[in-house]
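Page 37, top half.
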Amino acid sequence: MNKILGLMAALALLGAPSVCAQTIDLRSIKCSEFAALPVETQDVVAVWLDGFLADDQAPDGLLVDFSETDADFIQEQCQKTPNAGLLASVEAMPDEQ
């Protein structure tokens, strides 16, 4: 499941016009660094994190609706602790948003 979502995120990045590619190390990025990313990149990171953190019992599917994204919720949480690691902050978030 995570591999499928990772592939979908990679394909989304390939289809998006960009000046240069960017690798984001999600193990070490801080909330403040996430907040500084372009909104489109935040959306892709949020989709990837959603798949990465999903348990094996989660339904297989991908909601592609960026009107109210997880990135917005992550951004709100990260404003509270800008020096915290992004992955640790997201893992500590409640499941229901």
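Page 37, bottom half:
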Amino acid sequence: MTRRDGFTLIELIVAITLTGVVALLVYGAANAGIDTERRVRARDAAGRAERAWRALVEDALRNLRSADQYGGPTLTLE
């Protein structure tokens, strides 16, 4: 019987290849998570802006008064 010390070249190549595949999978998953987080934050910001605009318009319409006098408060949407 011969005693083996160390690894063969094939074993090292297989280990390096498997490590590379695992690293690529982890990188892809992390990148997908970051992209998803960015899209969720953008959608959340757009939703907040829409709710603020809606509240502003509702408040303006709810408190709308006729301008009986010259220079009275009016609502102008541009």
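Margin note: The mean pLDDT is 86.
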